[in-house]
Amino acid sequence: MAAGGGWPAVCEKFRAARTLSAVESLKDPETEPYRSKYSARALLQEVKQLLSAAEEGGEARVLAVRRAVLEYELGVNHTDTEELSAGEEHLQRCTQLLEPHRLSPDCVSLYIQAQNNLGILWSRRDEIETAQTYLESAEALYNQYMKEDGNPPLDPSEHFMAEEEKLTDQERSKRFEKAYTHTLYYLAQVYQHLDMIEKAAQYCHTTLKRQLEYCGYYPVEWARNAATLSQYYLSKECFMEARHCLAAASVIFSQAGQVPSAEDVDETEQDQHDLPERKAEIARCWIKYCLNLLQSARKLLEDNIGELDPDRQLELKAQRKKEEDEKEKGRKKAVLFGTSDICDSVLAMEEKVSSVYPLDFQEAREIFLVGQNYVQEAKEFFQVDGYVTDHIEIVQDHSALFKVLAFFEEDYERRCKMHKRRIDMLEPIYADLNPQYYLLICRQLQCELADTYYEMMDLKVAIGNRLEKLDSHTVKKINSLAQFAIKYYELFLDSLRNPDKVFPEKLEEDVLRPAMVAKFHIARLYGKLITSDSKKQLENMQTSLEYYTFLVDYCEKYPDAVPAVETELELSKEMVTLLPASMERLRAKLSPCV
């Protein structure tokens, strides 16, 4: 057939089928989403029949490979049109035809792509371990071929090309590497499904690196995947790697919306439409980076009562000086993305924010300011109208940034002002929320507002303790802050009541600790209220005792609750013993002399 006039016509039909599948199908109407795919399938069947008619006169090996190409194209076609069983049959036939020659340069790329597609097909059936088998087999075959041969293999499309149309070695290599990159990409997803998180992250990183190397990526998708990977590195406290992923995500994202190359034909109008949202998503990942870095530094620096430990601070600063020499090694150890031109832009982006733990207020503030800038960027898209939950989460992260920055601030008054900023951003949001629809968020905000007022009250008490005598303004301020804290803790506890306003006898596991801590803090707050009225003081002590007693009694009745509140329980038991005696002494003072 190759010698006759029919071969060019066969190649033309094959090319037309591929164009229908890859290009024309994107324009199909919603009412007929697979119109072009079905037309492509009809053409492929015609080519298959023409090949069958030529089998007697042709070379068996060449015909077998061409038939395998058609089985592959039909397999992908059926899979694309949701006909998975038929798709599987064609893909299996393809691999069976190629099996004896799978390591030869004219078959290896096609065999790997068939196994990739079988992996995808089984993933769609939620048979993840079967998918894993096919994809790992494709990976092993690539590695074996590169070790034993390594020459750029034929692309499957070349089996239906005239000699003069064949691809260059450079183009063959690019397409082969792209097929293998797909293998790694799908393996990353499979490992994610199987909860092999570390392996998934490793494969995701390699995929992203290869996509840049071989220019086989869509900027929006690439940036989103890199930003997502940064969150894995954050969970492992690998801040250098997390920052590198985010810097690369920001640099590559900036390419989106530029004139598309042939490589970018799949980056649809939808992707362009989604640009503001994707930009805001990357900004949110940057916020998490800054917040996690600050919070991890806090854990390193705090003493047993949660304050900054100056000795530990000095020790870590001295240690960091020694480690400066290791910085370059660390830089090389991090898995870098991209070609030199991209790397330069990424490194410039990285210079804007540190990846080492901040050890004092100035260093912490620099990271805080970067995080705050990304808060504003994220809020531009995730506005409260239309994105209530997202908007509130961003505001909560902003509040958390202020909270952790306050830890580094030595001046109590300035620290108080930072917590006041948190109140000012959280209270209006809480006031506008309907608990019927946003109960969980309301509870989170109630606890956070209560904790913030509580912290401010503690700071005002500490400021007051430095004075020779408490002035009326400070007393008023301490009492006001304590009452606001009590108000929000009570609102949270009330949210746990049933429709008949009855507090649950046994608390659900997810609210056990917050509820017990709220009870404990209310007990302590009543003890902190300052009054010159002894009768009022006695009432406050009685209320305080009731809350401490609740905690002790609950843990006696439900011992499984003890691990959640060990410290609070120990202090509550102590107060339940001490308070009655203090109250008796106060009562004795109030009683008229006999």
TrEMBL record:
Provenance organism: Pipra filicauda (Wire-tailed manakin)
Question: Keywords on this record?
Answer: Cytoplasm, Cytoskeleton
For this protein, the record's Gene3D superfamilies field holds:
Tetratricopeptide repeat domain (1.25.40.10)
What exactly does this protein do? Activator of KIF1B plus-end-directed microtubule motor activity. Required for organization of axonal microtubules, and axonal outgrowth and maintenance during peripheral and central nervous system development.
List localization entries: Cytoplasm, Cytoskeleton
Any coiled-coil ranges, and where?
Answer: none
Q: Which family does it belong to?
A: Belongs to the KIF-binding protein family.
Q: What is this protein called?
A: KIF-binding protein
Cellular component GO terms, alphabetical:
cytoskeleton
Superkingdom of origin organism: Eukaryota
The Gene Ontology biological process terms listed for this entry are: central nervous system projection neuron axonogenesis; microtubule cytoskeleton organization; neuron projection maintenance
Please provide an example of a Pfam family that matches this protein in its UniProt record: KBP_C
User: What is the gene called?
Assistant: KIFBP
